[in-house]
Specification:
The protein is of the alpha/beta class. It has helices spanning 16-23, 76-88, 107-120, 132-140, 153-173, 182-196, 203-212, 245-251, 284-292, 311-321, 360-364, 383-389, 396-409, and strands spanning 3-8, 29-32, 41-45, 48-52, 65-68, 73-74, 96-99, 103-104, 200-201, 217-220, 260-266, 269-271, 305-307, 309-310, 325-329, 339-348, 351-353, 367-374, 413-417, 425-427. The protein has a ten-stranded mixed β-sheet, with helices on both faces. Strands 14, 16, 17 and 18 form a four-stranded mixed β-sheet that branches. A two-stranded antiparallel sheet has the order 3-4. α3 (107-120) packs across α4 and α5 (153-173) packs across α6. The radius of gyration is 22 Å and the shape is globular. The structure holds inosinic acid (IMP).
């Protein structure tokens, strides 16, 4: 049963898009299971660069079935514009399938996202403003609209009849007005229904049949472990389970369906939005990581906060996701830093803590305990040379850095990525999946 999951080990932006695209070469299906247009997966193919938000990364490859699972929240306008972008590059959406059970991000969810953020004031989460939280909240409150509903006018009208007045009241309490009247919203949703009708189906049946038939299925994670609604830095998190647990509910597959889990880990740490970040740097090194690493959000363009690699976070991710191997990204960005720090534990109120704390107030008092390693010259690891010569040609200190991560996490490194391109990759896996 050749299945594989690609999961972010940190706060998202680890390079999952590139790794998923790389691994998708061998895949029959690429399945997204959670999140929405808050994600930003950048994929470079030759001179083309794709910034995907909703479409699974497999969509760039021919003959790969790309599935948007039931666990996603779908902004139909965003999906329409991504499909237009795809067509402009000469590709088709023929291989796309969308779950009839996925919830729809309605125009008022974006509005409410902004209003709720403003109401939180200085305690804001720093959301992407894409309506993700309000949409998931409605899903759980049983006040959502699902993709399948867009195909049934009578039922959709009934749903809006119940839901819309509640939303109007809620919006009023936040001092805003819903932009669209109920009847106009119905028309818009029916148009989307017509547009996406060819792709909407029961994707759980499709994915399980594929697994049963021995097809290669890749589950593509969005965001990262530390943004997980249960195990991230709550409340500074997104509103879905970004850990591998989200695959079962978000794709409609049993736990046994996930055989291997690749934890994508950036060689340092970044996060966008608010919330504690123990290894954050406010100095020249932080600026180096931001500038050399191009650390600006794909979705919002916001500068990402940068810091040293945090192994407390990585070990938390390894345990929660059942990571079987790691894909290390952006090692090249560390070049020319004379020494490198790696956080191995936290000092909280004078105690050494090696597991990521659940309490945000304890976490905000945590100080990093570092081990220091020697750096390497950027000139010694130009990606073209490295990819040609392989692992043995890596600078000695880079290999020591990688060994340190393997030993500290207990997980082997299967892939090393040095740039956005497919070819800028060293594959250390003994066998392909
Ligand atoms: P939301 O998902 O828009 O509700 O935002 C909640 C938090 O998750 C904010 O701190 C966002 O910046 C962060 N976030 C959401 N999606 C991503 C992502 O794909 N990469 C990095 N951060 C994200």
């Amino acid at each position: 049963m050749p299945t594989l999951a690609v999961i972010g080990s940190q706060w998202g932006d680890e390079g999952k898009g590139k790794i998923t695209d790389y691994l998708a070469e061998d895949a029959d299906l690429v399945v997204r299971c959670q999140g929405g247009a808050n994600a930003g997966h950048t994929i470079k193919v030759g001179n083309e660069v794709f910034a995907l938000h909703l479409l699974p990364s497999g969509i760039i490859r021919e003959n790969v079935l790309s599935v948007i699972g039931n666990g996603l929240v779908i902004d139909c306008e965003e999906l329409r514009s991504e499909l237009d972008m795809l067509r402009r590059t000469g590709r088709t959406a023929d291989m796309l399938r969308i779950s009839d059970r996925a919830n729809v991000v309605l125009p008022y969810h974006r509005l409410l996202d902004g209003a709720e953020e403003r109401a939180r004031g200085a305690k804001g989460v720093g959301t992407t403003g894409r309506g993700i939280g309000p949409c998931y909240a409605d899903k759980v409150a049983r006040a959502g609209i699902r993709m399948g509903d867009l195909l049934d006018e009578v039922y959709l009208w009934e749903r809006l009849d119940t839901i819309y007045p509640q939303k109007e009241k809620f919006a009023q309490s936040l001092g805003i007005r819903l932009e669209q009247e109920k009847a106009s919203l119905l028309r818009t949703l029916l148009e989307y229904g017509n547009l996406f009708r060819p792709y909407i189906t029961d994707t759980s049946v499709l994915v399980n049949d594929a697994i049963r038939d021995g097809k290669k299925v890749l589950f593509e994670g969005a965001q990262g472990t530390m943004l997980d609604i249960d195990y991230g830095t709550y409340p500074y998190v997104t509103s879905s389970n970004c850990t591998s647990s989200g695959i079962c509910t978000g794709a409609g597959v049993p736990p046994s369906a996930v055989q291997e889990v690749v934890g994508v880990t950036k060689a340092y740490t970044t996060r966008v939005g608010a919330g504690p970040f123990v290894t954050e740097l406010h100095d020249a090194v932080g600026l180096h990581l931001q500038n050399v690493g191009g650390e600006f959000g794909t979705t919002t363009g916001r500068p990402r906060r940068c810091g040293w690699l945090d192994m407390v976070v990585v070990r938390h991710a390894v345990r929660l996701n059942g990571v079987t191997s790691m894909a290390m990204t952006k090692l090249d960005v560390l070049g020319d830093l004379p020494s490198l720090k790696v956080c191995v534990a936290y000092d909280i109120d004078g105690q050494v803590v090696s597991e990521f704390p659940g309490s945000i107030s304890r976490l905000s008092r945590a100080k990093p305990i570092y081990e220091e390693l020697d750096g390497w010259a950027a000139a010694s690891c130009r990606s073209a040379d490295i990819v040609r010569k392989g692992y043995a040609a890596l600078p000695k200190n880079m290999r020591k850095y990688l060994d340190f991560i393997t030993t500290n996490s207990g997980v082997p490194i299967g892939i090393i990525s040095f740039g956005k391109g497919r070819e800028e990759t060293i594959d250390l896996r003994r066998r392909k999946w």
